[in-house]
Amino acid sequence: MSNYHQNTCLSETTLVLEESINQFIEYARECVPNEACALIYNNQLHLSENKASLPTEHFVIPLSDMVKAYESPTGIQLVLHSHPKSSPEPSPTDIEGMKTSRAAWLIFSIKHQTLWIGENGQGQISRVPKYALC
Ligand SMILES: [Zn+2]
């Protein structure tokens, strides 16, 4: 778990990993009505199965996926999930999860077609790049 405390450079992450983010958006659309979740580490997108008991309302990334990411050379670069029917702002549960994961998060709203990217509950909303839209 040596990379557990590694900091993530947010702007660099969003720029370099744009392609991964687009892949996630595609995956999130396929997962509707459920929330989709994924991790970016080693500069690659790793899709996860949503293990939440109510996947239309919450998401849970399997612990084994989290451990793999933390133990990878880069550590977790970004935790991603989708909000099928609400805005991209983090829920209270999301903000708690952010503190625990110590990583940057991306939330994609399928309803609003916007992204929230931030850390510790502080973030910014941006439009999905045009080329990410079907
Ligand atoms: Zn959420």
CATH homology group: Cytidine Deaminase, domain 2
CA distance, first residue to last residue: 38 Å
Main sheet: which strands, in order across? 2-1-3-4-5-6
The portion of residues assigned to helices is 25-40%
H/E series, N to C?
HHEEHEHEEE
What shape does the CA trace take?
Answer: globular
Summed up, the helix count is 4
What's the domain count?
A: 1
What name is given to the CATH topology?
Cytidine Deaminase, domain 2
Enumerate the distinct ligands: zinc ion
Can you give a write-up of this model?
With 134 residues, this protein is of the alpha+beta class. It has one domain (10-132): Cytidine Deaminase, domain 2 (3-Layer(aba) Sandwich). The chain has helices at 10-16, 18-31, 63-71, 92-101, and strands spanning 37-41, 44-48, 78-83, 105-109, 114-119, 122-127. Strands 2-1-3-4-5-6 form a six-stranded mixed beta sheet, with helices on both faces. The N and C termini lie far apart (38 Å). Mean pLDDT is 86; it is low at 1-9 and 130-134.
